[in-house]
């Protein structure tokens, strides 16, 4: 078995795919009205985005009765401050709750939490 991709639901998959395409500098390899696939240049596992009309933004951190995140992406970066600034330029927001000093939790434009981190 081989993991081919991780799929994120979104009300507007093309908009979310554009965000991650620009953030990761990946290429669009499939673009349908309700489905977009991104892949890295090295051909590794990709990210897919699919339309979910009943999508509810997750709450970070989730409280009782809140829509919880079901998955999050960990993205390694060389410069944490610069990567956060770039993500914000592209439409991400820094989450109010930050559980670690060497990791930054951000929310993509659809509200999915993702983490930027540097290797120690």
TrEMBL record:
The keyword Cell membrane does not apply. Keywords: Lyase. Gene3D superfamilies: 2,3-Dihydroxybiphenyl 1,2-Dioxygenase, domain 1. GO terms for molecular function: lyase activity. InterPro entries: Glyas_Bleomycin-R_OHBP_Dase (IPR029068), Glyoxalase_6 (IPR041581), VOC_core (IPR037523). Residues 2-120 form the VOC domain. It holds the Pfam family Glyoxalase_6. PROSITE patterns: VOC. This is Enzyme related to lactoylglutathione lyase. It comes from Saccharothrix longispora.
């Amino acid at each position: 078995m081989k993991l081919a991709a991780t799929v994120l639901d979104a009300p507007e998959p093309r908009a979310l795919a554009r965000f991650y395409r620009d953030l990761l500098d990946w290429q669009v390899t499939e673009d349908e009205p309700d489905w977009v696939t991104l892949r890295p240049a090295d051909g590794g596992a990709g990210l897919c985005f699919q339309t979910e009309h009943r999508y509810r933004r997750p709450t970070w951190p989730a409280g009782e009765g809140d829509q919880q995140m079901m998955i999050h992406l960990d993205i390694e970066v060389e410069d944490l401050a610069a990567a956060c600034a770039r993500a914000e330029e592209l439409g991400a927001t820094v989450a109010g709750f930050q559980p670690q000093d060497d990791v930054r939790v951000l929310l993509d434009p659809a509200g999915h939490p993702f983490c930027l981190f540097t290797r120690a």
